[in-house]
Amino acid sequence: MSLFAYSLAVFILATAVATALFRDVLSVIIVFGAYSLGMAILYTFLLAPDVAMTEAAIGAGVTTLLLLLTIARTTRPTTDRLRERIHVPGVVAVGAFVLVLCTVVLPEMYTVGSLETPVWSNPEVTQHYITETYKQTGVENAVTSVLAAYRGFDTFGEAVVVFAAGVSTLVVLKREVFA
Questions:
Q1: Which of 47, 89, 115, 116 counts the highest number of beta carbons within 10 A?
Q2: Which residues form the MrpA C-terminal/MbhD domain (predicted)?
Q3: Spatial contact of 143 and 130, defined as CB atoms under 8 Å apart
């Protein structure tokens, strides 16, 4: 495994432990959002971009938004109390770590269209999916046929989760606007 994979595993583990140990609800929400973002990066590293996008949208995006809206509706800290909660060295440390993580991620990613990508490293499997998926599904586009036939339940589940999260967010935001 690469240095990136180890760094990412440590980051995910650290944010998971921090989420469980922190007492301040706002801190927990922020660290949980970072955890979800780390998981999305891990899924991207493991060549599962559809799962990564779902994790980023739902875990890091919608869930964090809903939790922040919930805390905003239930507690109203004064500006002085809010400033006391912010730990500037911690914020700087996390920001620096994310910057380092991003600089490590970019060199690890394959160049688009490169013959070194895993897709081209095993041409027999690639050719099988290109030729056989149309025969089995009747769908001409190989990517669509793989998502529809081989990963149909997974794709359907992700679509349901994204749809439910979107509807839930709209309901909460509508209540927020009209409250």
A1: 47
A2: 10-75
A3: no
